[in-house]
Amino acid sequence: MAMETTSTAGNEKRKPYLSIQNLTKKFGDFTALDDISLEVFESEFVCFLGPSGCGKTTLLRAVAGLDIQTAGRVEQAGQDISGLPPSERNFGIVFQSYALFPNLTVLKNVAYGLQNKKMPKADIAARVDELLQLVGMPEQGAKYPAQLSGGQQQRVALARALATSPGLLLLDEPLSALDAKVRVRLRHEIKQLQNKLGVTTIMVTHDQEEALTMADRIVVMDQGVIEQVGTPLDIYRHPASPFVANFVGTMNFLPAVAAANGDVWMEGIELSAAEGMDGFAEGEPVTVCVRPEDVVTRDIEASAANAFEATVRELEFLGSFFRASLTFGETGEPVFQADFSINMVRDFRLEEGCSLLVAFPKDRIRVFAGS
Fold first, then answer.
1. Contact 36, 24 (CB under 8 A)
2. pLDDT at 5 over 60
3. Which of 240, 182, 251, 246 is nearest to 210 (CA)?
């Protein structure tokens, strides 16, 4: 069953600009979207995040009218747009493939939507000049798409999408075809531009780093349903399910059993957590989740909460830090990962085979059913 969005601070008293209500999309017997409900507020930057085939692009296309939903309702600015064709909806869209007209110059590509609206030529010229200035390409108007880099083509596509001043900007994996350094630069530019214009924006991505750095809120999707909606920090720190915990960031999943006092036992080690411990029966299998960067090593004593002795099995150098694989208990299983700074590895003289005291902070542990 699809999970509905929860309000975030500042949204409780605002009316949603875009409202998706009980939306379902089927392709034959296959259900691509299953009873999706979501609200997007004015000027928000929302990311649909999930693996390939999770339904995020289908949801974006339903909002755009490119794939009409099988059931459900879509409202924009209080208007029911559920059955409207794309041409009658108020949005601009940027595709992964840019979809620029190869036989038109940059100027004519950006002006295309304005010409269709029969704007005066002087107004079109002024608007195109303004947009090219906005995306940092004021001198490129006479060039054709084939003469531009991938990053420049994406800027032109963005300018074209914004030309008619749409109420909603839709971005379908707009950066995935670019190399890593260009992606980092463009995601910063797009976010700055969105902040400046205040246009309500939805971006589809499978890249968690893009979502974490760009979004006001993230909608995590899997198998046609919404797993969780929240701010990047909420999603990262308080994942609502094992899927979210595994998909966003790196997470250790460690088998344990529930104890009678609300704690858990993990290979003979008793652990306490600040949340997620309610509702488990004594002896019930559970999974303890902790992120590698949250494993503590400095300034802890053996008597500290959630502290135990671990052995370094492997050390992997990753440039700015080391990722250690650690074991504990008599069997040397399970294995978990911890991220240690270069200074910490040097100060502790860590190497494979050595032992050290580690701790899982109570407020950084999540516990889920099953193991």
1. yes
2. no
3. 182
